[in-house]
Design a protein that fits this description.
mainly alpha; 84% helix
Length: 187
């Protein structure tokens, strides 16, 4: 996945650069035309860049430069306009990357929120099911108790019948026979 993302990043950077190029060119044209823009916006960064570049080159070569001669106004204005144009392109690309980072973060937070909501929903369902299982266990215990009661009742009836039978045989009393009913007269 990283291999596929790298060419896309290059393509995105080139697209941003192409879109930002006209804006940078307009700034360069404004620097050439406007004295204020050239003096206060383009020249100071160009002279600073020239000073840092020359100081670094001299120290790399082993020379000690006491003073560095500034650039002439035309070259400094051109360098400053180029620096400003590149800064704008870099700023556009950086802002696009920052926006993409924020978008990814919000997407990640939203997915995390959905995952947490799903887990909470599952936890609620689990709690509800545990409650239903507890109720069913209570009902099953009641059913078991009823069946035990029915079994005890049947056993007691059987013992009662057996006891009646024993009492009847001990007394030797015949069981009463039903009385015959007189015949009905028909008219």
């Amino acid at each position: 996945m990283v291999v596929g993302a790298f060419p896309m990043a290059k393509l995105l950077y080139l697209g941003i650069r192409q879109v930002s190029k006209p804006l940078a060119n307009r700034i360069k044209e404004a620097a050439r035309r406007s004295e204020f823009f050239k003096t206060y916006i383009c020249l100071p960064p160009a002279q600073l860049y020239h000073w840092a570049e020359m100081r670094t080159k001299m120290s790399i070569m082993g020379f000690h430069a006491e003073s560095i001669k500034p650039l002439n106004e035309v070259a400094a204005a051109e360098l400053g306009a180029n620096l400003l144009g590149e800064a704008i392109i870099f700023g556009c690309a950086g802002s696009c990357l920052l926006l993409e980072f924020w978008r990814q973060q919000s997407l990640r937070r939203r997915k995390e929120g959905e995952r947490v909501a799903s887990l909470l929903s599952l936890r609620d369902d689990l709690d509800r099911l545990e409650h239903v299982v507890d109720e069913l266990q209570v009902q099953m215990q009641a059913v078991v108790q009823r069946s035990e009661l029915d079994q005890l009742r049947a056993e007691l009836r059987a013992e009662l019948e057996e006891f009646k039978g024993q009492i009847c045989t001990e007394r030797q009393e015949p069981e009463p026979e039903p009385e015959p009913q007189p015949p009905k007269a028909s008219l």
